[in-house]
Amino acid sequence: MQVELKNSTQKLCVIGDPVLHSKSPLIHNTMIEALGLDYIYLCQPVERGKAAQWLRCAALAGYAGFNATMPHKEALVSLMDELDEDARQYGAVNTVCIREGKYWGYNTDGRGFLAALSQAGIETAGKTVLVLGAGGAARAVAPKLCRTGDAARVVVANRTVEKAAALCSSSPDGRMQPADFRGETLCHLAGEADLIVNCTNLGMTGINRQFEGLSFLDALKSGAAVCDLIYSPAETVLLQKARAGGHKTLNGLGMLIWQAVFALEHFTGTKIDGAVVLPLVEAALEEACI
Questions:
Q1: What is the pLDDT of residues 5-20, one digit of tens each?
Q2: Catalytic one among 23, 73, 127, 144?
Q3: Digit-coded pLDDT (tens) for 260-280
Q4: Is 73 a catalytic residue?
Q5: Hey, which of 145, 153, 246, 284 would disulfide with 30, CB 3.0 to 4.6 Å?
Q6: Cα–Cα dist 285/251, whole Å
Q7: What are the distances in angstroms from CA 267 to CA 35, 136, 186, 202, 239?
Q8: Looking at residue 32, which CATH number applies to its domain?
Q9: Other beta carbons within 10 Å of 264
Q10: Whose CA is closest to 124, among 108, 106, 110?
Q11: Same domain for 247 and 269?
Q12: 80-114 pLDDT tens trace
């Protein structure tokens, strides 16, 4: 990849703590090069609690915008001049545009998730979705499924039921329902689900924690799909077992790419054809992993 720098080149980046492992620079710079845009995308470590200081630095340094990952997504909400509806509802910002001295906050995670499902041929219209976990990822996924009018029912299962209930309270029509994370509960819920979405970090590379048991996958009906928002490893133990059971599976790479596509559209004001850039990004990621 060759990124040409000119005096007119506008700067973008991703902030986080830690963040040097992020694949966002590779994803965005691949798209930037393919589209011939005059931008460069960097990686900027920003310590927890320093989001407000970073905003001032970014504006002074002439950044056009940036993406945010843990632990800054929630902290940025109160620092924005404007928020889009998704960022306001999720209580989290993953994309910030700096325009005329103002900060505009967006959240593209939910849209990215739905786009990844669509690309994989996984339908949610009129379906029952079981969401595992009630953290930041679940806050983007579960409400988006309801707000689009797709899923008929979304159940959020979490070890702390109160946290799941708090998330479900954001759905005034009652289409989101909380549940506990006990094995027998998951077995019952899996039997009713058309799609399971893992929004926890169980099974993630570097996290020495796995599901206590995956017997709930045995209760899945034929045709049900399983999505794990983790993309490292590319196939978690959860997805391995689901695939062995004959179910369609999807990891989190598609969501990662699609949320970046939508973020770059906000940064540049350019409509991006995902069908064109996705194969290029996937090839770049595959090459980088060799």
A1: 788 899 999 999 988 8
A2: 73
A3: 999 999 999 999 998 899 999
A4: yes
A5: 284
A6: 14
A7: 13, 23, 40, 32, 34
A8: 3.40.50.10860
A9: 26
A10: 110
A11: no
A12: 999 999 999 888 999 999 999 999 999 999 999 99
